[in-house]
């Protein structure tokens, strides 16, 4: 049993070079916590005025979940998908055994851009399967009654929250939900006690389980909770993530999620060899090369909580 926790996971700034030339804030994975449920990665890119150009690059063994806050992003992939994405919409790409994709901001000039991007590690039953892409322009929502002030509004982005299901495809018991609190409100968000959860403060101010959160702070709550109290003085936008604890040890390197060093090394070699495994993203004549593997064997990330 993981048990209840109240641990703030401070994000770290990570430079992303090349043609994108921008920094992101990375909250997950954390050195003590490789996954929260099946969530294995969380970046916030922005807010910034930028010209985003992420050329084709590969993925295996995971799903990418893109949740824009400001601006528009164009997604293209080796399945032939070509979709623009904006606030309130979800792009979900399932890598399976292999896919490649690109991400561009809309237009040729810098634009205001802000988004959350998550990765969800796939279980054995799905990680060797076919790749897929989904775009959801309408997502279900619900109202959580307030103990004080106005009620909270929740959008269920992925999985299941309080019995409301997102239409997006999932492969493990999971939740990803945006929570909007009005100024002066206090609510108790229902949780599944057999799942672990965390809450990220995206904008505004919030106190979660008696802990004040800084912007971009991620509070890990553990499991064994039926609810969590959240309050805000000026109003807040938060993101809830969680799910059934992911039991498999995973090896993460670059854009790959696997189980062993050899599996990761083979995927890297196939990408560098332009193998059919990752296909070709139409409309591009360059792609991102894989970095060199480290001089030691890649080991699974271990949970210390």
Automatic annotation (TrEMBL):
Query: What InterPro entries does this protein's entry cite?
Result: Pirin, Pirin_C_dom, Pirin_N_dom, RmlC-like_jellyroll, RmlC_Cupin_sf
Return the SUPFAM superfamilies for the record.
RmlC-like cupins (SSF51182)
List each copy of the Pirin C-terminal domain by range: 178-274
Q: Where is the Pirin N-terminal domain?
A: 24-120
* PANTHER family per the UniProt record, alphabetical: PIRIN (PTHR13903:SF8), PIRIN-RELATED (PTHR13903)
Q: Which family does it belong to?
A: Belongs to the pirin family.
Protein name per the record = Pirin family protein
Q: Provide the organism lineage as a comma list.
A: Bacteria, Bacillati, Actinomycetota, Actinomycetes, Micrococcales
């Amino acid at each position: 049993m993981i048990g209840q926790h109240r641990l703030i996971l401070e994000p770290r700034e990570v430079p992303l070079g090349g043609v994108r030339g921008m920094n992101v804030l990375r909250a997950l994975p954390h050195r003590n916590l490789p996954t929260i449920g099946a969530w294995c990665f969380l970046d916030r890119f922005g807010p910034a005025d930028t010209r985003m150009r992420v050329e084709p690059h590969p993925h295996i063994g995971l799903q990418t979940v893109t949740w824009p806050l400001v601006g528009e992003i164009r997604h293209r992939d080796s399945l032939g998908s070509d979709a623009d994405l904006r606030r309130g919409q979800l792009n979900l790409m399932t890598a399976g055994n292999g896919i490649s994709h690109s991400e561009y901001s809309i237009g040729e000039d810098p634009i205001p851009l802000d988004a959350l991007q998550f990765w969800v590690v796939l279980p054995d039953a799905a990680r060797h399967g076919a790749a897929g892409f989904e775009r959801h322009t309408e997502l279900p929502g619900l109202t959580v009654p307030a103990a004080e002030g106005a009620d909270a509004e929740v959008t269920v982005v992925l999985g299941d929250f309080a019995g409301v299901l997102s239409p997006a495809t999932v492969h493990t018991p999971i939740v990803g939900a945006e929570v909007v609190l009005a100024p002066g409100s206090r609510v108790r968000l229902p949780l599944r006690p057999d799942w672990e959860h965390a809450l990220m403060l995206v904008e505004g101010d919030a106190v979660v389980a008696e802990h004040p959160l800084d912007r971009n702070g991620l509070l890990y709550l553990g499991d064994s909770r039926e609810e969590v109290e959240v309050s805000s003085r000026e109003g807040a936008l938060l993101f809830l993530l969680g799910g059934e604890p992911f039991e498999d040890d995973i090896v993460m390197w670059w854009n790959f999620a696997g189980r062993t060093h050899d599996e990761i090394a083979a995927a890297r070699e196939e990408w560098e060899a332009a193998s059919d495994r990752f296909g070709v993203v139409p409309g591009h004549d360059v792609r991102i090369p894989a970095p060199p593997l480290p001089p030691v064997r890649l080991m699974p990330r271990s949970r210390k909580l």
